[in-house]
Amino acid sequence: MPVSNAKQTRQRLGILFSLPLFFCIVFFVFEVFNGAANNHLLAIQNLEGSVNTLRSLAKDAESAERGFLLTGDESLLSPFKQAQLTLKGTQWKVDSGQRNYQKLQSELNDLVRLTRDRLQETAHIVQVQKASGFGVAIEAAKSRQEEDTMRSLRKSSVDLLKDLSAREQEALNNQQQLSTNAFIFFCLGTVVMIAVMYWLYNEVLSYIDARDQAQEQLEKFNSDLQAMVDERTRDLVEANGELQQFAYVASHDLQEPLRTITSFSQLMAVRYKGRLEEDADEFIGYIVTASKRMTDLINALLQIVRLRKAGQPTLRVSFDKLLDDAEASLQASIRENNVRIERGPMPDLLVDRVQMLQVLQNLISNAIKYRRTDSPVIHILATRTGAEWQISVADNGRGFGQEFSERIFGLFQRLHGREVEGTGMGLYIARRIIERHGGRIWAESKEGFGTTFFFTLPAAPRPVPESVHASKK
Q1: In the chain, at which end, N or C, are there fewer CB atoms within 10 A of the end residue's CB?
Q2: For 264-330, where are the E strands, in sequence order?
Q3: Is residue 139, in this structure, part of any structural domain at all?
């Protein structure tokens, strides 16, 4: 997917996921306003109830008074007494959230005062009856003060109820408008969400189609690539086989003419030494040396070819026996250079005997070839480190700079020129053998202080006896 399309898709998805949040916030605001409107309407209705309650208390007092004066039955005064308790035990307050709160509270206080006055007038009549009799009480009840109080109470309550009724109607209108707006917004939000979901549905379908197409293209590309890799692999296998066959045949066929050249050049060197010119002896020596070097190179190439064809090791081999065989093969060089070899206990490992013998012979012969004037001393040790054995071959020879520690394992790489015999393939072959056995090989050296070669091999599948062998010198 192009960067611009991906950016646009992210922006659209951001808008998509922000829409539900926006609608939730708006509906929450509507809910808050609706709750406030309900509370406002409830406060008005409570205030209307308070006004009606005060009017009812005044009427109860008036009815109780008349019934008591007509019958003299004090049980008829119960509503009056209950009205006194209600008036005294109720807090007559207006909600502070109402418009013109102070005016409404003042009107309600006047209504409470008139109701209290009316109840006090009834209480006064009852006291007069108890003190002076019904005649005096009836005459007192005929005074216009009670009528004036009731008239004022009715007028105040009616005015206040008209005001509250207007307020209630206004609150109902506001609530209805709020509900209408919420419904309209809900319908609008529903339409928008349907449109967004439809867009999202199309986007998902487009994404799935694009993904399927990309998957098909990728599978086709992988199939084509695999076919190319297979074809290239076959070509490489064929070329590699042909190259190995060529190297083997060339190396083998070169042996015979080279052997003839070497034999006759050595024969000439012996038979005609001193009988020709002085330069002739030197030239014959060059031929003998070059033919011998060519023989060594061909043998090394044959070893590399044989290494590629060798099978996997299947037998357990004693490294003590391998070292014995290596020393026996190099016995002439060891005696000639007065070499001392010291070694510790060696393990038995699952390796290719011929190839591992070749590694040990190469490392020991290198220690002898690159010696100093002192007699060579070679230390061979084996240590178990976890799931592998580490074997070290240390000498007191010339050594080399540590920066060349990888170069020496390259093919045809030599650090000391032609003054030391060799093909430059010994360490290369040693590394290939060690890596083929699942290990690794490296060197640590300091010029003038000797060299130590290390190589590791996987431990044997079953426990190796901890046999201690006597050190050999």
Answers
A1: C
A2: 316-318
A3: yes
- d(CA 54, CA 88) in angstroms, rounded, equals 11
Among 209, 240, 260, residue at a domain's last position: 209
DSSP letters for 145-192? HHHHHHHHHHHHHHHHHHHHHHHHHHHHHHHHHHHHHHHHHHHHHHHH
Mention every residue, 6+ apart, whose C-beta is less than 8 A from residue 73. 67
Distance from chain centroid for Cα 11: 25
Buried b or exposed e, range 310-322, using 16+ CB within 10 angstroms = eeebeeebebbeb
Residue 438 in tokens:
């699942």
Two tokens, residue 447: 């010029």
Cα 76 to chain centroid distance, Å, stands at: 86
Show the tokens assigned to 134.
Answer: 């019904």
Identity of the residue numbered 410: G
Per the structure, the count of domains in the chain is 2
CA atoms within 13 A on the CB side of 73: 9
Q: How far is 439 from 455, CA to CA, in rounded Å?
A: 7
SS3 for 49?
Answer: helix
Gap between the Cα atoms of 403 and 417, Å rounded: 17
Last residue of a domain, one of 209, 232, 263: 209
- Show Cβ contacts of residue 307 under 8 Å, excluding neighbours closer than 6 positions: 355, 429, 432, 433, 436
- pLDDT, averaged per 10 consecutive residues of the chain (473 residues), comes to 62 72 80 80 82 85 79 81 83 76 81 85 79 73 73 84 84 84 83 80 82 88 88 80 65 66 74 70 70 64 59 76 89 88 90 87 87 87 90 88 79 55 72 88 87 88 41 39
